């Protein structure tokens, strides 16, 4: 029988609760720096998360929520510059330790490394944001632990399109059946399932009401031995935290 070969992780909301207290705050700081009166509340940002990608999210905001703001052929450049400024602020937030990893993430990654299980990243956020999170919240040099970092604009169609996962699988030279994916959102699971990947979901405040049809397991967190997860859907095989033993059971279940 074949064995589990690799774990592929989404980043924002999956490895860390970066959206509400990270990206949103950094966007607002960038807007203020640019002299804009835009302010994305927690509630508004939840609606904006319907669109993946920071630049795409700003365009969506102008199209749907700030229609009085004048736009022209220079607007894409303005958005690009705002996004660059936002990334600087986001990195500063990470370096301050303001955005920790979610429960169980570091333990699982270390267990995977100890067992020579390959790892990859598949995300719509920028490579710079991925590096900043891993280097500050996980461990210095930990970016190298991931063989493939599929991030940002490396493919033209972002999640919910499957392209980013297909690209990661091609780079790993693995079939979807050899891997498990970790996601937190409806757009994310549409992307991973579109690439035929078995997917484990860890919800967050923004995604708790999303449709996770097709997930192998839906949890409130990865869990720790002394702080177990709550299983919301799927078979957790009696476990209360994610480890390789549980992942191998999910992997070998062909249903």
Write a brief caption for the model.
This protein has 9 helices and 7 strands; from the N terminus they run E-H-H-H-H-H-E-H-E-H-E-H-E-E-E-H.
Description:
This protein is an alpha/beta fold. It has 9 helices and 7 strands; from the N terminus they run E-H-H-H-H-H-E-H-E-H-E-H-E-E-E-H. The chain has helices at 18-33, 42-48, 54-64, 75-95, 105-114, 127-138, 163-172, 186-194, 244-252, and strands at residues 6-9, 118-122, 148-150, 179-183, 198-202, 217-219, 231-234. Helix 1 (18-33) packs across helix 4 (75-95) and helix 3 (54-64) packs across helix 4 (75-95). The model has no long low-confidence stretch (mean pLDDT 95). GO terms for molecular function: hydrolase activity.
- Nearest-integer average pLDDT: 95
Largest sheet composition? 7 strands, mixed
Order of neighbouring strands in the sheet with most strands? 3-2-1-4-5-6-7
Q: What's the CATH class label of the largest domain?
A: Alpha Beta
CATH architectural label of the largest domain = 3-Layer(aba) Sandwich
Coarse morphology? globular
Question: How many separate domains make up the residues?
Answer: 2
Stretches where pLDDT is under 50 for at least 5 consecutive residues are none
How many individual β-strands? 7
Query: What is the helix fraction of residues, given as a range?
Result: 40-55%
CATH topology of the largest domain: Rossmann fold
H/E element string? EHHHHHEHEHEHEEEH
Cα Rg: 18 Å
The class by helix and strand makeup works out as alpha/beta
**How far apart lie the N and C ends?**
16 Å
For CATH, the homologous superfamily of the largest domain is named as: HAD superfamily/HAD-like
Count of helices? 9
| Approximate strand percentage | 5-15%
């Amino acid at each position: 029988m074949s064995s589990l070969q690799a774990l592929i992780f989404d980043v924002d909301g999956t490895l860390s609760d970066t959206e509400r207290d990270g990206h949103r705050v950094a966007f607002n700081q960038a807007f203020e720096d640019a002299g804009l009166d835009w302010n994305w509340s927690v509630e508004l940002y939840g609606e904006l998360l319907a669109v993946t990608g920071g630049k795409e999210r700003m365009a969506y905001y102008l199209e749907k929520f700030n229609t009085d703001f004048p736009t022209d052929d220079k607007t894409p450049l303005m958005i690009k510059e705002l996004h660059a400024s936002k990334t600087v602020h986001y990195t500063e937030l990470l370096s301050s330790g303001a955005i920790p990893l979610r429960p169980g993430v570091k333990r699982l990654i270390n267990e995977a490394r100890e067992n020579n299980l390959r790892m990859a990243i598949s995300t719509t956020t920028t490579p710079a944001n991925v590096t900043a999170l891993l280097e500050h919240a996980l461990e210095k040099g930990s970016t190298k632990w991931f063989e493939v970092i599929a991030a940002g604009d490396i493919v033209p169609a972002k999640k919910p399109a499957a392209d980013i996962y297909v690209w990661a699988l091609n780079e790993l030279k693995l079939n979807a059946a050899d891997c498990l994916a970790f996601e937190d959102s409806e757009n994310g699971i549409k992307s991973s399932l579109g690439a035929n990947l078995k997917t484990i979901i860890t919800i967050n405040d923004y995604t708790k009401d999303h449709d996770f049809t097709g997930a192998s397991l839906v949890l409130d967190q990865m869990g720790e031995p002394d702080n177990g997860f709550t299983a919301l859907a799927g078979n957790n095989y009696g476990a209360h935290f994610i480890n390789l033993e549980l992942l191998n059971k999910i992997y070998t279940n062909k249903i």
